[in-house]
């Protein structure tokens, strides 16, 4: 397993993983699949802000990605980031998710960050368990704050000091 910084060439693989999660899970609250242009804009914005986008590689294929960005835009929140992680469906349960989050901690520390926040769909059992194992504390559930497929969804907020 190799974890490294993403490049432009990884965006099609990142897009495919992202869109599979959008289409087949409730882990990303988007209405429709994303486009390469949208992923490029996201990637460029992270780059301009000096924020990491990391990929996990297996046999030279991208099988997952992670990143963090600002949690809230007001100045007082500048030492808190919100992260995300997604692993290709056929590679889940093999340690990629854990590795992709673990490498975010030193990157956040190097940027002087203090707290990492995650917002996890309450049905995403694997993600909830993974974050618990990585030392995130569960803050609570934001009940029915989103709607997808005519169903209300609840979000579990977790946090971990860097
Ligand atoms: C959540 C996700 C990122 C986890 O990545 P992964 O590579 O499958 O997880 P790992 O193999 O690193 O597992 C790490 C820990 O998570 C937990 N875990 C993983 N899969 C699990 C499952 N299906 N059920 C319960 N716990 C699970 C385990 O505690 C595991 O630790 P262990 O192997 O020591 O028992 C991945 O499953 C995924 O992309 N899911 C779909 C999208 C998603 O939910 N993204 C997260 C949004 S917050």
Account of the 3D structure:
The protein is of the alpha+beta class and 162 residues long. It has one domain: Aminopeptidase (3-Layer(aba) Sandwich), CATH 3.40.630. Helix content is 31%, strand content 36%. The protein is built from 5 helices and 7 strands; from the N terminus they run βααβββααβαββ. The chain has a 7-stranded mixed sheet with strand order 1-2-3-4-5-7-6, with helices on both faces. The mean pLDDT is 97. Coenzyme A is lined by residues 21, 25, 27, 85-87, 92-98, 118, 120, 124-127, 129-130, 133. The site of coenzyme A (COA) has 22 residues, from strand 4, helix 3, strand 5 and helix 5.
Query: Considering the protein shown, what is the CATH homologous superfamily?
Result: Gcn5-related N-acetyltransferase (GNAT)
What overall form do the CA principal axes indicate?
globular
Estimate percent helicity: 25-40%
CATH topology: Aminopeptidase
Secondary-structure topology with pairs:
Layout (H helix, E strand, L loop, with lengths): L1 E4 L5 H14 L11 H13 L4 E6 L2 E10 L9 E8 L8 H7 L1 H7 L4 E7 L3 H9 L3 E12 L2 E11 L1
Parallel strand pairs: 4-5
Antiparallel strand pairs: 1-2, 2-3, 3-4, 5-7, 6-7
Helix pairs in contact: 1-2
Features:
single chain, 162 residues, alpha+beta, Aminopeptidase, 7 strands, binds coenzyme A
Give a brief outline of the structure.
The chain is of the alpha+beta class.
């Amino acid at each position: 397993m190799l974890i490294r910084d993403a490049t432009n060439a990884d965006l099609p693989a990142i897009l495919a993983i992202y869109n599979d999660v959008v289409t087949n899970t409730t882990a990303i609250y988007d209405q429709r699949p994303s486009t390469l242009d949208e992923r490029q804009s996201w990637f460029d914005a992270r780059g301009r802000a000096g924020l990491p986008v990391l990929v996990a590689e297996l046999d030279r294929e991208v099988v997952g990605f992670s990143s963090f960005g600002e949690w809230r835009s007001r100045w007082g929140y500048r030492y808190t980031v919100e992260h995300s992680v997604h692993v290709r469906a056929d590679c889940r349960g093999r340690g990629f998710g854990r590795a992709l989050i673990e490498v975010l901690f030193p990157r956040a520390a190097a940027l002087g960050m203090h707290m990492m926040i995650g917002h996890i769909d309450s049905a995403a059992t694997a993600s909830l368990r993974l974050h618990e194992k990585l030392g995130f504390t569960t803050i609570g559930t934001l009940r029915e704050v989103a709607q997808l497929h005519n169903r209300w969804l609840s979000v579990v907020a977790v946090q971990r000091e860097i």
